[in-house]
């Protein structure tokens, strides 16, 4: 069922504390932790604690939770003192999604080119 923890999901395991992560923020509904393979000086992932497979599913199945995730991206940027930053949701393998639990990348701390590759 939408939102239920998945046994084979890496990010559900991070939420459950079964896999270590450098957690920088936590709310009742979200967790933010440093990406293990950072692409910028600040590279933090914000995830809903509940399992939704991607941003589209999250917005459709739990719009309030999608708003919580977005609000937390701003909180992360504030904590990191980022004036400019990029929020990315890779949706689908063709766009580079590799973990099938919705997550926002918050990237900053260096100049970011546009368009992205
Ligand atoms: P995506 O490619 O958009 O699905 O993003 C998945 C992200 O998760 C990648 O940037 C990975 O570096 C990151 N990642 C994978 N495993 C871990 C982990 N154990 N802890 C933190 N970040 C991870
Ligand atoms: Zn999950």
Automatic annotation (TrEMBL):
Residue ranges of every copy of the HIT domain listed in the record: 10-117
Motif Histidine triad motif positions after renumbering to this chain: 101-105
Task: Please give one Pfam family short name.
Answer: HIT
Report which superkingdom the organism of origin falls in: Bacteria
The family database entries (CDD domains) matched by this protein are listed as:
PKCI_related
Protein name as annotated: Histidine triad nucleotide-binding protein
What organism is listed for this UniProt entry? Streptomyces hyderabadensis
């Amino acid at each position: 069922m939408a939102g239920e923890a998945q046994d084979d999901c890496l990010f559900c395991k991070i939420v459950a504390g079964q896999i270590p992560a450098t957690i920088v923020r936590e709310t009742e509904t979200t967790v933010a932790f440093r990406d293990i393979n950072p692409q910028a000086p600040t590279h933090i992932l914000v995830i809903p604690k509940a399992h939704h497979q991607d941003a589209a599913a999250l917005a459709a199945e739990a719009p309030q939770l999608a708003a919580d995730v977005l609000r937390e991206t701003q909180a992360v940027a504030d904590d990191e003192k980022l004036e400019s930053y990029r929020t990315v949701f890779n949706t689908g393998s063709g766009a580079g999604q590799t973990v099938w639990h919705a997550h926002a990348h918050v990237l900053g701390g260096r100049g970011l080119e546009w368009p992205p590759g």
